[in-house]
Structures are given as C-alpha cells and as structure tokens.
Amino acid sequence: MRADRLLSIMLLLQVHRRLTARELAQRLEVSERTIHRDMESLSCAGIPVQAERGTGGGWSLMEEYRTNLTGLNEYEIQTLFLSRPSHVLSDLGLHKASEGALIKLLAALPAVRRQDAEYVSQRIHIDTSNWHSREEPIPALPTLQQAIWQEHKICFTYLRGETLVERIADPLGLVAKGSTWYLVAVVEGQSRSYRVSRIQSVRIMEEAYVRPPDFDLATFWTQSSRDFTSTLRWYQATVRAAPEVVPRIYGSSRLFRMEQTDVVDQDGWLTFHLGFDTPYEACAYILSFGDQVEVLEPAELRAEIIQQAARVLEYYTKKSFA
C-alpha cells in the first residue's frame, strides 16, 4: 500500500509540477505528517523531490526527472481520457483504481501529448444515465464479480414477479445497461440474463465450471437485446400535430417509436405514427399537448382522449363552483 502511495506521489508531482503537502494529503486520503515521511523515503530512494516554502511553494520534482510514454497518437490519447461512466466503476469498486490509472498514464505522457489529454477531458463528458433512472439496490454484485473471476458456480434466489425462485448457474459476465446491472449466466444449459437488483441472495459454490470457449459477452448481449426488442408489443397511434409542438415531439422521441409522414394539411399540421408500450402511455402523452395534438387513429384511443378530457373539465368545473 505504501509503495503504491509513493508512486502516486511521484506521478502526481510529475503531472501537476508542484503540490503542497495538504493537497497531496487530501488527494491520497492520508495525513500531512504521512506525506512528509513519504517525501523523506522518496529522497532516500534517490528520487529528486524538493520543497519550496512560502506563497506558491510546495513539493516538486526536478524538471529533468520524468518518464515518457511513446507510441500513442493524438486521437488515441483523446479516447483514453474520455470520461468513463463513474456509477458503473463505483458499482464495481473500481472508481479509484480508474482515477489512479489515468493519473499514471497522464504522468507518463510527453508534455505535448498531455495537453491533448487535458483538452478532451475538459470538452467532452459522457453521462450514460437517463433523467428518470432510479438507483437500484445491488448487494449481490460483489459476490457475482468474485464468482465470475474465480469461474465457480453460484446458487442464487431470484424474484420473478411475486415468486422467489432458486437457480444454480455458471456466471459468465455482468452487463451495465444504463444504470441497471444484469447477470449473464448459463442455467440448465441455456445462456440467460437476470436483473441483479432482483437477486435476493447468492452464494458461491465450491464446484468450478468450464467457460464456453466460443462465448463472447458483447455478442450475446447484442443478440439478446435484439430478440427482446422484437418481442415487445407496440401500441400504434396516428396523430396530427401543430407545427409549434413538432420540436417537442422530436425531443421526447426516445419514449416511443416515431415515424413522420409526408402528410401536411392546409393548416400546416404534420402527421406522425407513434408507437407506445401501452394505450395508457399513449393517452397520457397525447393529453399533455392539449389541443395541439389530435388523435386520428385508432378510434378507441380518440374516444378515450375525449372521455379523459371531459372528466378533467367536469372535475375542475365542480371545483370552481364548490
């Protein structure tokens, strides 16, 4: 642990050129006294660290002391320093390890390449979460990780609907879909996926398993996702929309399937085909536009919209005269 800290100090100084003992202590989560002892150890080991007192002072390395990493071009370096989904790394317990690896890589880069890395990290940030995501409890995740690394079978209980079922599985991998984790495992000879938040308990068995030599996690997940999407039932609605709300429809198109037609009526209204998961979602979404979106088909959805609007009007009318 101390050796890692000494290396981190050396690389931090190489990247930032000068840091105070307090700044180093905060970054490495130790006391300032520990930092001073570490500096003595580095000096005894022949690392040219030096201290400057006063305003703007701190610890630094002699300018000529550095390690260079060659062979990476500008664009390769930029891809390495694009932000990672921090919640995924945190779930896996790898957030600090990721930061440490990037510090070491940044310290090893020549000065001109270091600018490329800092340039992209300040201009592109990737956030894989969505606005409506909720944090799910995933206490089983560390145990699943361990079983996957060790290639041992697991026995777990899984909440399927309202029923608790038990399964013995060969865990092959973990997939983060947005902020949701899935376990991919072989159960009864078939590769399946399970939502980790629904796993109620898990234990690692002593028996090892043989990982299928031709199994590729990314390929399996891509095909599995396609198969799942193809089985979804979509509720189709045809609507006409006022020009001023068309940007809003496009802006929320991730909530449904959308196809714009070439039909534009004499009022300038555009016709769309929208696909929702359920009639309820279609009704709620369309009602949110008031009189700026009209349902053309199906007839039952149009009738439901009219009934819902009438009920709302009746409710507020009674409230007004109460």
From TrEMBL:
Matches recorded under SUPFAM superfamilies: Winged helix' DNA-binding domain
Regions annotated as coiled coil: none
Record key words, sorted: DNA-binding, Transcription, Transcription regulation
Annotated ranges, domain HTH deoR-type: 2-60
Superkingdom, natural source: Bacteria
Keyword Iron appears in the UniProt entry: no
Keyword Chloroplast: no
InterPro entries recorded: CBASS_pafABC_assoc_protein, DeoR_HTH, HTH_11, PafC-like, Tscrpt_reg_HTH_DeoR_CS, WCX_dom, WH-like_DNA-bd_sf, WH_DNA-bd_sf
Protein name stated in the entry: Transcriptional regulator
